[in-house]
Design a protein that fits this description.
With 528 residues, the chain is of the alpha/beta class. Helices cover 33% and strands 25% of the residues. Bound molecules: 1,4-dihydronicotinamide adenine dinucleotide and 2-oxoglutaric acid.
Length: 528
């Protein structure tokens, strides 16, 4: 099998060795494609690797008829339409750790350059001026650095700033006062941070909530002479408001690595002497570029070869040790979903997936995705996958609930999938038997023991002599061999079931004949 990989932004050649070494990977590097050219070509590729320059829009994604994975060699995925990728079942992976150090070092370099006017002084000297008066700076020691966004880079910047003997106050929705104290910084709200800081540095992603986090009102609340650093994303700071605040003398200076529109050659902020800037260089080091390229390349190879990734963006990831425990249940989850989809009549309205026993203590979201995938696949076909299963269920208005209980009816772990449709509620439960693989152990309220694969026939009947024989005879007359069979009943002479493993699919006419037999209430073919 050959996989076609397109690299459309400059990636470290040393870092893409996992792709180069993988068998059957055909790699095309073309970093000069226009959006139109990319749209024309993308249909040929299984994977697209980008940095921040290529805009992977909905239009591009929709033209990617073979596209299975998009790799972002870096952190920010705001250049990729994640919704469009998820809808089409395309997994997006990034390299979240590889450039943390470089981005933090760049932020500190910008802070120090800003405080000491280094770029302006250098520029003046290059223009043959020995000017020592204009470029008087400020010390950072004992000044307060406000950090908005205390994730990987925000924290690294804070540790380095403390090395410069700065006081650090930080805000992050996931930060608490206790955690901040442990990390040696002060915790505050956004308002506390912007009011207290002499320097403010932002390290959030660009989201709806963080767009123009620093705006006109925020500037008004800041100390006079505050200095601003943005090495995260353009758009977190309102550039017009920043311009006005600098011109008004409220803000003494700004160091910007990122901009609302990139790339550009002219920018009104760069007409101000108080502004220093770099063209999105935060991650541009030999080390960072090599690591991020290695990380995404490994994920692309691993995904195309065996469907696993380390750094998914549009799928929840679980730690490796948890994955190892739940992975053996993936097939069973999909089979239970698929079984139920054949068993239940009508449009699914609500699905309850209950994990009992040992599974109840684990993060089972990937397992639920498999169950939903199985459930939707028989209706929607092969376009359903792990990435879009939950999205498609939401879009179809199916409520999916994940429930956990320690009570597992004697099984080490049990998965029960229950589905409500307009015609009623049906359920199926399964487990893994040590060394023997998956088993369906319950259908509705009947106990069974069935290997969930191949062709099955689920029959509801009255517990009467002759019912089983009539079914066997009819199947034989249709040329259908019975491989295994189980029966169960609620009480003698009451409702009963047959669960029959057969060697081929029973056609509709056969099902109708079965339903017409004496004492047979219902017959459902289940193809797994
Ligand atoms: N200039 C460059 O070349 C580079 C830029 N970046 C950018 O730096 C930023 C930070 O990256 P990482 O630290 O790796 O990400 P991260 O995910 O580790 O940290 C981001 C933090 O922002 C926080 N956050 C989210 N919403 C917030 C809000 N409303 N207010 C305050 N905090 C909020 C999150 O809780 C999280 O802790 C990203 O925008 C990333 O794209 C990253 C690498 C290089
Ligand atoms: O690829 C790059 O150089 C940009 C890195 C970046 O902005 C990120 O990782 O978020």
């Amino acid at each position: 099998m050959t996989f076609n990989i397109l690299i459309s932004d400059p990636l470290s050649e040393d870092g893409i060795f996992p792709l180069r070494e993988a068998e059957g990977f055909n790699i095309v590097v073309d970093t000069a494609l226009t959006p139109e050219q990319l749209g024309e070509k993308i249909g040929e590729f299984d994977a697209l690797l980008v940095r921040s320059q290529t805009q992977v829009t909905r239009e591009i994604i929709e033209k990617g008829s073979n596209l299975k994975i998009i790799g972002r060699a870096g952190v920010g995925v705001d250049n990729i339409d994640l919704t469009a990728a998820t809808e089409r079942g395309i997994i997006v992976v990034n390299a979240p750790d590889g450039n943390t150090n470089s981005a933090a070092e760049h932020s500190i370099a910008m802070l120090m350059s800003l405080a000491r006017n280094i770029p302006q002084a250098f520029h003046s000297l290059k223009n043959k001026k020995w000017d020592r008066k204009t470029f008087i700076g400020v010390e950072v020691k004992n000044k307060t650095l406000g950090v908005l966004g205390f994730g990987r880079i925000g924290q690294e910047v804070a540790f380095r700033a403390k090395g410069q003997r700065m006081n650090v106050i930080a805000y992050d929705p996931f930060l608490t006062a206790e955690k901040a104290e442990k990390l040696g910084v002060q915790f505050g709200s956004v308002e506390d941070v912007i009011k207290a800081a002499d320097f403010i540095t932002v390290h959030t992603p660009l989201l709806k909530e963080t767009r123009h986090l620093i705006n006109k009102e925020a500037f008004e609340k800041m100390k006079d002479g505050v200095q601003i650093i943005n090495c995260a994303r353009g758009g977190i700071i309102d550039e017009d408001a920043l311009y006005d605040a600098i011109v008004a003398g409220k803000v003494a200076g700004a160091a910007l690595d990122v901009f609302e529109e990139e790339p550009f050659v002219e920018h009104k902020l760069l007409t101000l002497p108080q502004v220093i800037a770099t063209p999105h260089l935060g991650a541009s080091t030999v080390e960072a570029q090599e690591i991020v390229a290695i990380d995404v390349s490994y994920d692309v190879v691993s995904f195309l070869q065996n469907g696993t990734v380390k750094n998914p963006v549009n799928l929840s990831s679980v730690p490796k040790d948890v994955l190892a425990k739940i992975e053996p249940f993936f097939n069973l989850g999909e089979q239970l979903g698929s079984f139920l989809s054949d068993l239940a009549e009508g449009v699914p309205e609500e699905v309850n997936i209950t994990y009992s026993g040992e599974l109840a203590n684990l993060d089972t979201r990937p397992l639920s995705r498999n169950a939903i995938k199985g459930l939707l696949k028989s209706k929607l076909g092969e376009s359903v996958n792990d990435v879009n299963a939950k999205f498609l269920a939401d879009r179809l208005g199916i409520t999916v609930n994940e429930l956990k209980t320690s009570k597992s009816k004697g099984f080490t772990s049990l998965i029960t999938v229950e589905m409500r449709t307009a015609t009623g509620t049906r359920k199926v439960a399964g487990t893994l038997l040590n060394g023997l693989g998956g088993r369906i152990v319950r259908v509705d309220d009947f106990i069974v023991d069935v290997i969930p694969s191949g062709y099955l026939l689920f029959i509801r009947h009255k517990d009467q002599p002759g019912a089983i024989g009539r079914v066997g005879t009819l199947l034989a007359s249709e040329g259908i061999n019975i491989a295994a069979m189980q029966v169960g009943r609620s009480e003698i002479g009451g409702d009963a079931i047959m669960m029959i493993s057969i060697d081929k699919h029973v056609e509709k006419s056969g099902i109708e004949q079965l339903k017409g037999l004496e004492d047979i209430f219902d017959a459902t073919p289940i193809d797994l």
